[in-house]
């Protein structure tokens, strides 16, 4: 009596190999299509904006004349915004992740909190703009300031940072914690000296991706009422600002072809900022990985 029918096995293997080839081809076509669209977008942005990208463009104030317009105020406003978003979101996000993973008891309440944090990561950004408008602009009377915009964008990316930090902390082997406890370290010393250094690469990856989203978001800032045209720089966190996405939105809404090219040049500057941020994250992550 045969326990294995080789003919049936061969037939099933052929079917599985055929399905594997088909799905592999589908996934490859999907990848190539995405790369093609990205390549077309990059080509159009570079071809339109490269000619306008010079020092005068970076160092000029916005103007109603395309030949005199620049992104000086928008670029400075973006930097001011990051001075609020980065520390607020990192401190709150990483602190929340450490509490949920290391201190909070595993019960229905913490499960409910984690489910809602994960759900908040998928909420449309305009909802956070409405929340910021209600709380920071109107209730706290901060107006369209750097502080209100920064706190709103911090709320936007906070769920992403919390989830990424939780995954990074959870991925630290238990043997490292037990070895630290065995050496007489307290729980807080173990977290600071053992868990955090091991989790920093994963935390940085999620944080940089979240900050990149904050730099490129426009909808929450439009809801807050940030000006599309601003001819002065903020001097404090309570001053009004405008940022690169708002400037790009302003120029793309104008009918003149020159402003469309200026928007493409501003997009190139924004891409360079994102590449620099991600490069810094990769360098820091590799540095900590070598130490471990």
Write the layout of secondary structure elements.
Blueprint: H1 6-49, H2 55-59, H3 72-103, H4 108-120, H5 125-139, H6 146-170, H7 174-182, H8 187-216, H9 219-224, H10 244-252, H11 257-291
Membrane topology: Multi-pass membrane protein
Pfam family, one: BPD_transp_1
Protein name: Phosphate transport system permease protein PstA
Task: Kindly describe this structure.
It comes from Niallia oryzisoli. It is a multi-pass membrane protein. This is Phosphate transport system permease protein PstA. Residues 75-281 form the ABC transmembrane type-1 domain. With 292 residues, the chain is mainly alpha-helical. The protein is 76% helix and 0% strand. It has helices at residues 6-49, 55-59, 72-103, 108-120, 125-139, 146-170, 174-182, 187-216, 219-224, 244-252, 257-291. Helix 3 (72-103) runs parallel beside helix 6 (146-170) and helix 7 (174-182) packs antiparallel against helix 8. The model has no long low-confidence stretch (mean pLDDT 85).
Number of strands: 0
Supply the helix-strand structural class.
mainly alpha
Low-confidence stretches: none
The rounded distance between the terminal residues' Cα atoms is: 57 Å
Helix tally equals 11
Strand content: under 5%
What is the overall silhouette?
Answer: globular
* Overall pLDDT metric: 85
Run of helices and strands:
HHHHHHHHHHH
Largest sheet: none
Helix content: over 70%
Radius of gyration, in angstroms, nearest whole number: 25 Å
Membrane topology: Multi-pass membrane protein
Keywords: Cell membrane, Membrane, Transmembrane, Transmembrane helix, Transport
Main location: membrane
Subcellular location: Cell membrane
């Amino acid at each position: 009596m045969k326990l294995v029918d080789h003919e049936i096995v061969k037939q099933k293997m052929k079917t599985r190999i055929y399905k594997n080839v088909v799905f592999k081809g589908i996934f490859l076509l999907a990848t190539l299509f995405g790369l093609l669209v990205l390549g077309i977008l990059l080509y159009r942005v570079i071809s339109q904006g490269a000619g306008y990208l010079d020092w005068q463009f970076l160092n000029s104030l916005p103007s109603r004349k395309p030949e005199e317009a620049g992104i000086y105020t928008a670029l400075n406003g973006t930097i001011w915004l990051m001075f609020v978003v980065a520390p607020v979101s990192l401190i709150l996000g990483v602190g929340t992740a450490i509490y949920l993973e290391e201190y909070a008891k595993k019960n229905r309440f913490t499960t409910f909190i984690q489910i809602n944090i994960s759900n908040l990561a998928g909420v449309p950004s305009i909802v956070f703009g409405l929340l910021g408008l209600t709380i920071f602009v109107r209730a706290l009377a901060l107006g369209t300031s750097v502080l209100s915009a920064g706190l709103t964008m911090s709320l936007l990316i906070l769920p992403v940072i919390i989830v990424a930090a939780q995954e990074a902390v959870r991925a630290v082997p238990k043997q490292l914690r037990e070895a630290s406890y065995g050496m007489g370290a307290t729980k807080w010393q173990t977290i600071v000296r053992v868990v955090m250094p091991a989790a920093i690469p994963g935390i940085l990856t999620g944080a940089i991706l979240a900050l990149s989203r904050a730099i490129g978001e426009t909808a929450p800032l439009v809801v807050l009422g940030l000006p599309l045209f601003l001819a002065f720089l903020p001097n404090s966190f309570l001053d009004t600002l405008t940022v690169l996405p708002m400037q790009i939105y302003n120029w793309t809404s104008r009918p003149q072809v020159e402003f469309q090219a200026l928007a493409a040049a501003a997009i190139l500057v924004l891409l360079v900022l994102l590449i620099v941020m991600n490069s810094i994250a990769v360098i820091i992550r590799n540095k900590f990985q070598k130490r471990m």
